[in-house]
Amino acid sequence: MRMRRSVRFGVALVAASVALAGCAPAPEAGDDGTAADGCVRMVTNSGGLEDRSFNQSSWEGLQQAESEYGVEAEALVSTSETDLAPNVQQAVDSGCGLIVTVGYELADATLDQAGRNPDLAFAIVDESVEADNVKPVVFDTAQASFLAGYLAAGVTKTGVVATFGGGNQPPVTLFMDGFVDGVARYNEVHGTDVRALGWNKDSQEGSFTGDFEDINKGKVLTEGFIDQGADVILPVAGQVGEGAAAAAVERDGVSIIWVDSDGYETLPAEFRPVLLTSVLKNTQQAMVEIVGEVRAETFDNEPYVGTLENGGVDLAPYHDLEPLVPPELQGELEGIRQAIIAGELVIESPSTP
Predict the structure, then answer these.
(1) Does a structural domain hold residue 1?
(2) How many whole angstroms separate alpha carbon 273 and alpha carbon 258?
(3) Is the pTM of this model over 0.85?
């Protein structure tokens, strides 16, 4: 069970605030009595810093925090599993009072170091860790991917869409649950029979490449879906998703829905013609808020949960493929969005944070 109580660190939180200032040379006191400069360390998972996913977006958020709060941010890049625990140790040894780790791979190392260093503040992105000094940063992506599934069912010309993941893990399958539910809702409303390949929500089984780095695996799997008639595909697999985009570029009439960041802005320009939209996680906003909490000594372990209501998740613009989305469909999507925000439509998943 995830810890939900609000924690005020008292002496420990003050120590965390001091440590946040501690790794900047000769900080000066600001008007609010806190140090004008400070530091934060981020540890990536094995996807690396430029994964066009939540490593990259988390880093962008910390760069925004540099401008807003005058902190100094550095990233420790993990290239393999053997880098994870040593990088978290190095982040702790830096003397910074806020350590950000990214992804489920870092859960054990984060929990271990949080227990050893109760005076430091930790945040972990896209994973839940139970500790008094760890804030999980998670996203109810099923809300936004429900919209993506409804959209996919509304624009498909073949009546077949698909999704796949890098691994069968809650942050991945949450997208897939929302997507297939969105397709089902479109069928219910319109009396259609659009099929969603790649995921069975009831059994929680589906198609996975087994990693988040091998682009060729994503291309091969996507080609298989296209051969079965799929013309809109949602890869939830980090860099592997580039393989899906590469397959789509080679086949007429196929489009991709990206995840985490706006793929139109982060992927190579050659993929722009096939990017229908992206299911966004606003990790940047969360990072800025957490740095602000540590600076203000209001940091606690209450999870940050991104939703449609708080802007933590959303759909990106349709960019070049906007002509595929008729006004009537866009109106339906906006109605669904408002129903979810109002709590009139609840998107459920075993992986809901």
Answers:
(1) no
(2) 13
(3) no
